[in-house]
Amino acid sequence: MLKYQNIYVTDQDKLASAEKRLSGSENLTISDILGYYGEITLGSQEFKMVFDLGSSDLWVPSQNCIQDSCRIHKRFNESLSKTFNPIGIPFSIMYGAGTVDGITGKDNVLAGGLESVGQEFGLVQEELGSLFREAEYDGIFGMGFDNLSKINASAPFSNMVEQKAVKNPYFGIYLQRSNDTGLTGTLTLGDIDTTKFTGNLNYNNVSTLNDKYLYWILDVDDISINGNKLNFKNKQAIFDTGANIILMPDEDAATYHKFINGSSFDGRLYTVPCNTMDQVAYIIGGVSYNIDQSDLVTDQPDLVTGSDCLSSVQIGNDYNWLIGDVFLRNVYSVYNIKDFTIGFAPVLNKILVS
């Protein structure tokens, strides 16, 4: 037992303190544009970052970026960091609503009180797309697998695991809605926040693409609407906090909306009544997860009728589904980068139907 300034510290206290340091959490704020963001420290400079399941790279605007989209955000100043090391390899990353280009560097990153030492990241010198001009956040913090990296670097959380900065190789995500008063989203690194969900976590194996772990992909059994199963077969979905809706191939989106009362299609977008009361559940790993009615629509009204809202399910590519925040807000989710699994449990105000 140690004594310091009349404070006794037991071995048990030291162990508890060490364990506490091996996990951490970050508050998440819902973005008006896309995704959820929180604060990190990169080379002693603070940035607001979207924590994105659909990518694996960390990037921030460089001081050398003089575009308006960069200048209205926090930019990384290399001269202010004693731990920064330049790499200088060019990169380009394309997102659904924009592209960023720049060069790479290396510095220490602090997220949720946990550090990734010598993290390779992108110094963006050019941003293309309205997404970045209008965003409240400065950059993106990728939470996907290393193989997805466009700068050929380890993802930040992967680095934390390898450096033993976290006690467990998984992170948990809880997302709030814009109308959830007094609530804050949470990213828990290296641990699980058991106060955010009810029942047990049900784990599902992540699928590969071309024999590589890239995205957080799961098999989806089916969808039920008002008690009717839609009989989807052999469907896979990418789960992505960087998407605020659900995207399906044309035929699947049409099947889904046949069961949604009052839905319509203008040849490009689906609309549904803003006050829809349909009961929708996604069935994954044999477990049904109910979707709150508020998540069946977006906040955007239909510009033609003015009375309906855009559906939260729209047409995407011809292959996989993309499942975003409208599903993930209804569950607490856990992502394990070593076991290659995702665990779901309904959040406390939701009901799970087995």
From TrEMBL:
Pfam families: Asp (PF00026). Belongs to the peptidase A1 family. The keyword Disulfide bond applies. This is Aspartic peptidase domain-containing protein. Signal peptide: none annotated. It comes from the Eukaryota. Residues 36-345 form the Peptidase A1 domain. GO terms for biological process: proteolysis. GO terms for molecular function: aspartic-type endopeptidase activity. InterPro entries: Aspartic_peptidase_A1 (IPR001461), Aspartic_peptidase_AS (IPR001969), Pepsin-like_dom (IPR034164), PEPTIDASE_A1 (IPR033121), Peptidase_aspartic_dom_sf (IPR021109). The active site is at D52, D240. Gene3D superfamilies: Acid Proteases. The keyword Glycoprotein does not apply. PROSITE patterns: ASP_PROTEASE, PEPTIDASE_A1. Disulfide bonds join C65-C70, C274-C309.
